């Protein structure tokens, strides 16, 4: 018999409509992007050739940086960025948020491969403020800011906060790196251009498969010498593949398709978060989203929440989530990232799903 | 005006038939492999799912090892294998051939990322012998053998030599790793099964885009605990991509297409090498190939050789090479790897090409 979490996953997979994401991660994502690409189009070869160079130039220009390099993963790109800034200053120390991807999702690659010490700025539930940066030792080579701060629901500091941190770092010989996995998704909130954001940073990483929805891959952008060194480290990491075009052409295809849709995702995030916040025992973090993402916090133990959500999904045909993660014995949460899928679901079905959710949150736990 | 090397490249690209390789590295390689794959086929997700697991199981079974893991690159796979064996023994020292890929093509990733010291066994022009291994310090954690030894034309030690090295390493607490980028290509010479070769090694790397002709990617195989650790290091390196299926499905497709063709490639390598050796001032290394590959050495300066080869290619329509690399002021060479392309070229055109090559080697340099 399935346990409650497995049943939740199953009920999600069986829904006809899902409110987050762009759709299933399947082979269609590849095939659709390659449909119009000529068979004779040449592969990139170990980082050379138009297949990679043209896209790198395009992204450098888009981000307002001198140069860019395509990486198979953001994990690789960011470790390398920090390593370069550490070598430049001669101090193997960087600072970032305690819930940074590098700190919690990369098996300590930064420490184990690069011997870099990390300083954790601020508390887990906060975004980094200028005071946090000013309080740290000045032998830190680089501060990494993640915008939005994914693990706390995609929260953002104000733009003036970013400016203040950038100003301080520039005045104190500290490099500033942007973990911009989801940076495009923040533009509607900031009401700034991508160049205005990136200008505050010495180096910028952007993911090609979050809001953009490509298959995998990342872009790292910065000055010419920084990118030259990045390519050397890319080879060292084993990321200078003979052919990266399966990721590059798809990245380009979905970048063109979705770069202009971030406002739509942002608006739908606010709309959907409001629906969640209208339900008993449920709140979103942040309450009003500042990008396309937010976390849904449920005041029930994981097992009970899974039962509630599975029941809602089965009865409504609307997919809310495939998992919940425990916060403590009485609370759990899951992440929502808005994409193309939201607008495919009929409004009356969404309405029904949230009526059911509110009702079941009030009337359950079940007796089983 | 094009210089001679550029003209050589251009003349090669313009030929109707090319004697080495499987064909151009273009988007068709991807499209062909995906043609029969259903759009609904699910992606792998960070190393999980049937898309990656099924192929890893298949390759572990094929290589006769407990487990296998798919990597985006051999560079990453091999550094990680050596790191694991170094950690196991507590000695950051490995030994390999002076022309190992790790020593000359990876920007010293092994040293810079893993802090591993390298011992170079034997001279550049030799293959590693048991005496070389016995002469090294016993604090070496792992010996890496590359079969065939690519940078010296794909030479191979005898199978008994491999057995003797393996026996010595096992008796002396030294791990033996196989750089088997082109290991399938050696089976017709050894007249052994792939399991008989791999059984001599603690860990095995095989490329999916050399003789197999996939887009990119590699398989690392070994014991269960070794592979468990490999996956942790894969994440640290930034190689645990959310989706590797564009490489995996193509690897599987071309593996099935070509795993049985290594005998054909071996025979055509011997045939083609004999043609080269019949030409004035040209010899192959090895004289009689022992895999699908060999090097063509030309007793002329790089510039003159490029002129000769370009002229042959223009007049015959047969592509021999797109480059030559200097050995010294009077000699140069290039590499040949046989694949599906050889049999597409008409024999009389090949005959003509080698008549022209012999003639021009005797009568040129040009007067320009």
Query: Could you give the order of strands across the largest sheet of chain A?
Result: 2-8-7-6-5-3-4
Cα separation of the termini of chain A: 14 Å
Quaternary = homodimer
Sheet having the most strands of chain A: 7 strands, mixed
The coarse silhouette of chain A is globular
Query: How much strand of chain A?
Result: 15-25%
Please, what is the average pLDDT of chain A? Answer: 97
Number of helices of chain A: 15
Strand segment count of chain A: 13
Query: What is the gyration radius of chain A calculated from CA atoms?
Result: 21 Å
Helical content of chain A stands at 40-55%
Order of helices and strands of chain A: HEHHEHEHHEHEHEHHEEHHHEEHEEEH
Largest interface: A-B, 51 and 51 residues
- Content-based structural category of chain A: alpha/beta
Catalogue the unreliable spans of chain A: none
Question: What does this molecule look like?
Answer:
Two copies of one chain form a homodimer. The longest helix of chain A is centred in the C-terminal third of the chain and has 17 residues, at 347-363. Chain A has helices at residues 4-13, 27-34, 50-63, 74-89, 101-104, 109-114, 130-135, 159-171, 187-190, 194-198, 224-237, 245-258, 262-277, 302-316, 347-363, and strands spanning 17-18, 67-71, 93-96, 117-120, 142-146, 175-180, 203-207, 218-222, 282-285, 293-298, 318-319, 325-328, 331-337. With 368 residues, the first copy, chain A, is an alpha/beta fold. The two termini of chain A are 14 Å apart. Chain A has a seven-stranded mixed sheet with strand order 2-8-7-6-5-3-4, sandwiched between helices. At the A-B interface, α2, α4, α6, α11 and α12 of A face α2, α4, α6, α11 and α12 of B.
